[in-house]
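Q: Fold this one first, please.
A: Sequence and structure below.
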Amino acid sequence: MPQLNTTVWPTIITSMLLTLFLLMQLKTLNMYYHPPASPKLMNIKPHNNPWEHKWTKIYSLHSLPLQS
């Protein structure tokens, strides 16, 4: 039975690893990697909400008295 002959195993394993390594190199070299995106400056306008100016601590839920 030839599979029990272990004298050729290192040669087969080495050739298999070398072949897989070369195939992976060829596969990854054919891929196109996009360059990283450059940051874009955006003009952000502050939102004017009508409740921002009149919201005070009096209306906050944590400052209201406890109700039983």
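Q: Good. Now the second chain.
A: Here it is, same layout.
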Amino acid sequence: MEIKLFDSELKIMDVLWKNGDITAKQVAEILKEQVGWSKTTTYTLIKRCIDKGAIQRLEPNFVCHPLVSIDQARELETTELINKMYDGAADQLVASILGRSNLSPDEINRLKELVSKLK
């Protein structure tokens, strides 16, 4: 099941992916500190994520449980990026990444490892 999450909704999900199941109040406190959102804004976005099927509300205490994993979200976002910006050609995305001049030696080594696993 593909659930399109917008940037603001991904911020909600990121808090849950990093912290596990926590209350909506805790999510609001974290996002107030991180991005300055009001409790109302955070609750509205949590509700939107619930309506989309990305979050399950558990009781008591309005505990938020992510139903979409970070890997699922990354896969969807990556597929959208490839389709939108590279006309569906994943190799062009990889070429674009490899063409960046600011890759660190660690990033280069991780990329080499990934490519070697494809063989």
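Q: Anything worth noting on the second one?
A: The mean pLDDT is 93.
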